[in-house]
Amino acid sequence: MENLEASWWLIAVYLVVMLGIGILGRGKVTNIEDMAVAGRRSGVWLIAFSVAATWINGTTLVGNSALGRDFGLSSYWAGGSFLFVTVWIGYYVVPRLRETGIITIPELFERFFGPAYRLLALILVILRDLGVTAGTLGALTVVTMALLDISAIESQALWLGVTVIYVFLGGMWAVLVTDSIQFVIIVAGTVGLLFSGIGQLGGLSELGSRVDPILLDQFGRAGGLQVLAWIVIGIAVTWGFQG
């Protein structure tokens, strides 16, 4: 009961902070550029933290944890391809996109290929975002159901409601700030959980003695072909998602 009450308080504080950021961000939204791209005035670190939080989300933590359990270190090759392509996009693609003055990718397609391609790009972006949203919402729902002892519908309504409110109030500025806060929470929580788990096992030596050695091999249980598939998928997904 005490753990359940503590979980409620922690999540309640988190949600209040998210909503508060959305309310504070209202004053920064005066036009479509403020809403969609934070007026093009956001700093490098704010963007970097936001991109990191976009990748390291509920889907990543829950899904990759399961892959790590089943395939060990070899399952994290996809993460390396995510990192490589994201850095390349940041240094090579983004500066060129900023020079065009566009706000959305469909707008870019219309400028170079015509109105029909803007519609096609819009459909693809919507389908991509539906998949990403469904995956993230599903992971949040599973975690919240376990922590708060509520139904799936209640959990989904909670997260969707709060997200919609702070996004529509504060626009991209609110998204960048909340993403940055979430990134700090994710890193602190993940590192804390890692050290806590190792401590409960009795240290790294004890952990090593309990883990199947093949799970520590970079090409171990998955095999070279599967690793190559993860790399290709990681590159394709990163390019499509960040686009």
Written account of the structure:
- With 243 residues, this protein is mostly helical.
- It has one domain (2-242).
- Helices cover 81% and strands 0% of the residues.
- It is globular and about 60 Å long.
- 16% of the residues are buried.
- The mean pLDDT is 80.
Weakly predicted, low-confidence segments? none
The secondary-structure class comes to mainly alpha
Shape: globular
Mean pLDDT: 80
Largest sheet: none
Quick structural gist:
This protein has 243 residues and is mostly helical. Helices cover 81% and strands 0% of the residues.
SSE order and pairing:
Blueprint: H1 2-24, H2 32-37, H3 44-55, H4 58-71, H5 77-100, H6 105-113, H7 115-148, H8 152-201, H9 204-210, H10 224-242
